[in-house]
C-alpha cells in the first residue's frame, strides 16, 4: 500500500493518543476505495487476515498505530529507567525503579497512572490495548509485584522498597514451576542477606494467598519478549504480526468449521493446503480473488438471496428439490456430479501419460510425446 509508510511515520512520531474514531473514519474511506460501488463480497475482518490464513493482508491501520507506539518501549527499556520513572511518577515512594512496573499494571484507575502525566497515561493506554488485542495471559511473567492493584496481598507488605533495591520487581523473579522459589535460590540469584528470611516468608505467604497452590504457569507475552530482547530489527512488523494473529486465527477457524459442516473433518495438512492455494492458484490477481471468493462462499446463492427477498425461490434451479446452498451448487447437486466425474477421469488419464526423452543430434533437448491411443481416449 503506497500510503502506509507515510502513515506509519505519523503513527510512530505521534506524542498524543489517537482515539479509535479516527481509524474508523479512515477505514470507511478505505472501504470505499476497495469496493467502490460494487457489492462487498468479503468482510473487513477477512480482508485484514494474512494471505496464509485466507485473507488479502489489507493493513489494519489501528493495529499498525499500536505496533508503531510499542516499538518505543524497546528503546525505553534501554534508556535511563530510573530517571524516566521519577519523571513520570514522582510519588512512587521508592518502589518504582523501572517504568514497566507501571506500564505492566492493567487497571485503568492505578494511582501512578493518574498522577503520572500525559506521557505515562499515553503509554499505559497503548500497553493495555496491545494486551487486549493480543489476548495476552494474566498474570504473565513480567507482572509487577509492587504497587500493582491486581496483587492486593502484596500491597500491604512492609519494606517493599527493600525488595526493589535488590532488583526483584517481577513475578517471574520469585516464582518458578508453580511455586515460590526457595530462599537459597533468591540468595544465589539476587545476593539477598540472610536477615531477609522473615521478609521472604512474608512474600511467600502473600503469593500463596493471592494465587493459591500451585501458582498458575507464567507465560511470556511476545511483546514483553520483544521489548526485553536485544533484536531491534523490524520491531513494528513483529508487533503487528503478534497483534493481528488472534483475530486472523479466529476467522480461519470459523471458516474451517463452515467447510467441515459440509465435507466432514478436515486434517490440518489439507486445510493449510487449501489456504495456501489462494496464492498459488494463479499469477493473475482476478483468478486468486475468484478462488478466495469460493473459499469464503462469497457468491450469492438462491438460499442467501431468499433471506432478504422473501419472494425469491431458495431451491436449486437445476434439481429443484434441494436448498440451494453454495456447497450444493458447486458440488452436491446431481446435475453437476457428471461434470466432476469427467474431471476426475481426465485427471486420472493425464497422470498416466508416459513421458520419454529424445536427444537431438545438434542440441540436447528434452522432447515429450503423448501416447496416441491415450490421447484418443482423452478426446473422447
From TrEMBL:
Superkingdom: Eukaryota
Protein name, as recorded: Reverse transcriptase zinc-binding domain-containing protein
